[in-house]
Amino acid sequence: MNNARSTVCRSLLLLAGFTAALAAWESATKPSAYAPAADLIRQLETMVKRMGEDLSAEADYGEDQQGRIVKDANTVIVIGQVLGVHDQEHRLKGAAAGIVSAAGKLAGCAGEFARAQSAWNELKMALSGRSDDKVEWKPTADVVALMKQVPIINNSLRRGVGGNRFAKTLDQSAAQAATLAAIAEVSGLDSAYCESDADLQLWRRVSAEMRDAAAAVAAAVRKEDQKEASAGLDRLVKSCDACHERFRNQ
Questions:
Q1: How far apart are CA 237 and CA 241, in angstroms?
Q2: Can you give the pTM of this predicted structure?
């Protein structure tokens, strides 16, 4: 009996620690500090357009397209969440809840072309809709899909920041960096990979490091400072490596 009570007490303490840590994370940082609304909107519209291209013909809708839809739809969920709580005024503030809902439906039915196409149409319509519903600031997107998306966006960002393409891809790079920062911020709410309070603290730390590094890249891009943007990317890689060292195989 004593052992059972001890186990229950430990579980309750662990849950209390998770809850307190996540509550602190929720109120820590204003979105404008890491992901300007205009950059998030640009990336959202790019992804919605790309998903429409993937869903343009059933005959061409294979595993690659389905996998990309899953990753992009989950990323749009995150972007919608951050836009919904953003401290900057923007044209999608009233549409954010609908965007999150439609993107969630799309992520859940990506394996079925007809349903996915219908969900994408709903998502596209949500961009011009308005609702009094509030975005819930809680884990909503599939964190595994988000972690698979991170290196894809990061590789594209690195190509834009490096070499002679820098000046030509400023808007794209800023949008991608802001999106990585948003993914990091929202992922910090999710304890799916965490088995202990120590895990959660590490997860939050590397999420914050990733968010801040990505935000630094975005700020450097906007200043057209290629050297500083490259340094931010190096910090971003270090935060990803720290995460992989502990959580990658879970």
A1: 6
A2: 0.86
